[in-house]
Amino acid sequence: PAPAERYAALPKAELHLHIEGTLEPEAAFRMAARNGVKLPYADVEELRARYAFTDLVSFLNVYYECMAALRTEEDFAELCETYLRTAVGQGVRHVEMFFDPQAHTSRGVPVDTVIDGLLAGFARVAAGEDLTGGLILCFLRDRPVAEAAETLESVRHRASDLIGVGLDSAEVGFPPSLFEGVFAAARALGLHVVAHAGEEGPVEYIEQALDLLHVERIDHGVRCMESAEMVARLRAERIPLTVCPLSNLRLGVVSDLADHPLPAMLREDLMVTVNSDDPAYFGGYVADNFTAVADALGLGEEQLELVARNSISGSFAPAGRKAQLL
Ligand code: HPA
Ligand code: ZN
């Protein structure tokens, strides 16, 4: 079977997925053309040639450039619908998708256009499939804290359209501690909270995310393995870690998939999940990630079934929905 088909039968939740990272080059050029936007690449081939990333920031530069193609509510609806149809085909039954409002409002696209479009796309797919989930608004940690606070204020009136908030973009130099007040305000709105930490940043960022932001999950978190103390804590507190193997490979977090810490994390009894992060850019959707770790790391069926169950348990789905999927 094709890589994606091998683990497609396993019901799973996708907990670490940036919807803007599902924008495939062909769709970017199609949307740019209809919006009269000029992308800074001659064609799809030239864009794909830019996918030779060396680290997180080298990826983020291309990721933000391509977002220029996204302008209308229908663009966001199509983006979301297209991703969800692929995800459903790969066994995803629940998805909590990240979106980056500041990357759009800074270009003059209103946050309501983004949210309305994504929710419309979600509804089109959920109407005919066994699929639940919603949106997690991410703050861009490499932009001013005041802008994050304004972004939260701008969605206060529609907090019920969101599952929670997260923290993404360039990590090193932008510690979670900066966002303590913004996250407190988000929690006061009844929103769930997660944060990227320990992808490129140090273990201290994971600690700050837990102690200062009071996050319920850590996105990536692979660098926790540098601290036995942190590993013990994550195990004891059953903190889900949303690991993204192909992302880690493409961004140089690991130099070879065979060196990925996922097996060691499982041996440590950490609550790990496997996710696709930015599948259009990193060479695979969620079942492709399952297949890649099965092949490169020799993980067996039982381990991957556990990883899939972790994703459902670690989700913010209502208890009844979790029971249905487990
Ligand atoms: N890390 C941080 N920011 C991001 C990522 C990521 O993996 N993907 C999209 N924005
Ligand atoms: Zn991410």
Which key terms come to mind for this protein?
single chain; 326 residues; 8-stranded parallel beta sheet; 8 strands; 48% helix; globular; binds hypoxanthine; binds zinc ion
What would a concise description of this structure say?
The chain has an 8-stranded parallel β-sheet with strand order 1-2-3-4-5-6-7-8. It has helices at residues 3-6, 25-35, 44-49, 56-66, 73-89, 102-105, 111-126, 145-155, 180-188, 203-211, 228-236, 245-250, 262-267, 279-282, 286-297, 301-313, 319-325, and strands at 12-14, 92-99, 132-140, 164-168, 192-197, 217-220, 240-243, 271-274.
Kindly give the count of domains.
Answer: 1
Based on CA inertia axes, which overall geometry fits?
A: globular
**CATH class (first level) name:** Alpha Beta
CATH superfamily: Metal-dependent hydrolases
Number of H/I helices: 17
Total beta strands: 8
- Uncertain stretches: none
Give the SSE map.
Layout (H helix, E strand, L loop, with lengths): L2 H4 L5 E3 L10 H11 L8 H6 L6 H11 L6 H17 L2 E8 L2 H4 L5 H16 L5 E9 L4 H11 L8 E5 L11 H9 L3 E6 L5 H9 L5 E4 L7 H9 L3 E4 L1 H6 L11 H6 L3 E4 L4 H4 L3 H12 L3 H13 L5 H7 L1
Parallel strand pairs: 1-2, 2-3, 3-4, 4-5, 5-6, 6-7, 7-8
Helix pairs in contact: 5-7, 8-9
Bound molecules: hypoxanthine and zinc ion (ZN).
